[in-house]
Structure formats: C-alpha cells, structure tokens
Write the structure tokens for this entry.
Amino acid sequence: MNMNLSNEYVQQRLVEKFGDQVHSFEEPYGMLTFEAPKELNLKVLNFLFDDVHLQYRFLTDLTGVHYPGQAGRELAVVYHLHNLSAKHRIRFKVFTDIQTPDVYTATGLFATANWMERETFDFYGVNFVGHPNLKRILNVEEMDYFPLRKEFPLEDQTRIDKDDAMFGRG
Amino acid sequence: MALKDLFERDVQELEREGILFTTLEKLVAWGRSNSLWPATFGLACCAIEMMASTDARNDLARFGSEVFRASPRQADVMIVAGRLSKKMAPVMRRVWEQMPDPKWVISMGACASSGGMFNNYAIVQNVDSVVPVDVYVPGCPPRPEAIIDGVMRIQDLVEKKSIRRRESEQYRGLLESYGIQ
C-alpha cells in the first residue's frame, strides 16, 4: 500500500491505464482534478477503488453542475474521492448532454452514492442508470422541475413584496 | 349560612372572606391562560431562542408556559420556530390538527412569517398559508423577551376572547379557507 500518494503519481497511473481518455488535468488549490467520458465513469472509479496503490475507497461527495452555455456537455457530475490511509483527495468529473442525461450509477461501488445520486437527480435531473431507487429525496415529490438548473430562477417570481433595493441590488 | 343569606350580603364583604363571583367561562379562561403549554416545533435557529426563553434567566415558567410538550395532544399553543420547508408543511399541518381545541399558533421570526431570506423554491413563504396564525413575533431570531411577549399576547387572547368565537360564522369561514372540517 502506498502511504504517500502524490498528484503526479495518480495522474501518471491514470494516463497509463486510460491514455487520452482521461484529460483536463488541473490542480485547483492543490487538489488533482480530471475529466473522463461519461461512459467510462465506472471503469475509472473501479480502477481508483481497486488498484493496490490507489485505494480511493471513500466517496466524500457526489454532486452536479449545470453549465447552460456548453452545448452537448451541459451537465457535469463531480465525484470527490478520498484515500483514507494516504490522506489524499482527488476530484473526478464527467460531462453529459442535457437531452439524455444518463450516467451509470456508482451505487455498486459505494453504498453512499445511493443518497447522493438521488440528491443529484432531485436537483439537476441526472438520470443515474442502474440506481435502485432513483426518486426525489429532498424536494416535495410533486415538484415537476429540477430547481438547480440555471433556467429556473431561485426566487419566487410571484412575490411582489420583496423590494430589490432592500436586498442591495437594482 | 344559607344561599339566601349570601345574596343579602355585600359583595365586597364576601370577597374579604375569600368568596368570589364570576362566570364559569371567565374562570376557565383565567386558568387556561396561565397554563398555556407549547408544542415543541423547533424548525431552525429560532428554536434555540425558543429554548432560551425557558431557561433560568428568561424563565417562561413565570407565565405557566415552560412545559414544552413533545406530544401535540397535550399542547395548547404551537410556536412555529424557523423556516418551514414545503416538504415539512404537511407534517406541521398534521401536528396542528392533532392538537386539541382550543389551540393557538405563534409564528416566530422572519422566516416563519414571510419566508425571510429564503425566498426560494423550497420554503413556504408564510406559515399562515398552512395553519391559521394568532400572533406573529418579528425578529431574526426574536429574543426570548419577544417570545415571552408573544406568549403573553396569546394569554390576552385566551382571557379576553370568548372561546365561543370559534363557533362564529367568521371563524368557520376561516377554517373552511384552510380546508378544515
């Protein structure tokens, strides 16, 4: 087991294994971040989970991001992974188009993905293929839209009693 | 002393002997107003101030309201303390429906009364749209003194308003507007 993981080592192992398919390596605030095609998400997660030297066995966070300006890759799914023994974290992103937002579920690998994928579905409408119980978790069940997609305004547009000037805008 | 003798004596003289004249309704209202038991309904940070109102410094017990009941069936007044999410709204409505009549509601703080800073898709913008509110306590969060003032305003209502007002046309109309039988 490798007790001293470095960003360079993880990047080198990923490139050895997946070649050009993993790309966009960055290190915002020192945290290794990279991207892969959405079809590969389970292969990459499995590799990071199983490899003797990598052992990223803790899914700290899973969430979505909506980029309305990026045609064909409007929705991102972000995985934050943690190797507890080496105290090393990495961030992994896949992008999908918004018309068919299908991404394979990570519930087979991480039990905690069950809750987080339901949440991501609830707010962004990412369809996690193979999830055992993909339905709304935090919002009311009758809600018929995905509130964190950018086309939906945050505030209730029917309210007329909130004066913009009082909120430091307009 | 026969009842007949009582009527022949001066009222003030009787009061000095510890005999009072009142109506049953007033007596019940007086007792009720001095033992208003709130239902525990802490939703957010306001609940911390609500708890502080019962501590030794503020001592809501002076006014008979220190017993926060975990069961709505034993409570008289519901203090809605915090922002109410749309998902929680049916739960709050059910808790309110489980409280025995007569019952009162305090909407505590900016969020419960107006949605406060949470003007978004998840938060009910006024708990008045879910249950009928008797007293609004402003603040973010209100200080314990403000909550005690709110409870005392409820006491005023309990003492001065006839409980039969709930049988009036106006009150029935109000209940109907909330879809309550």
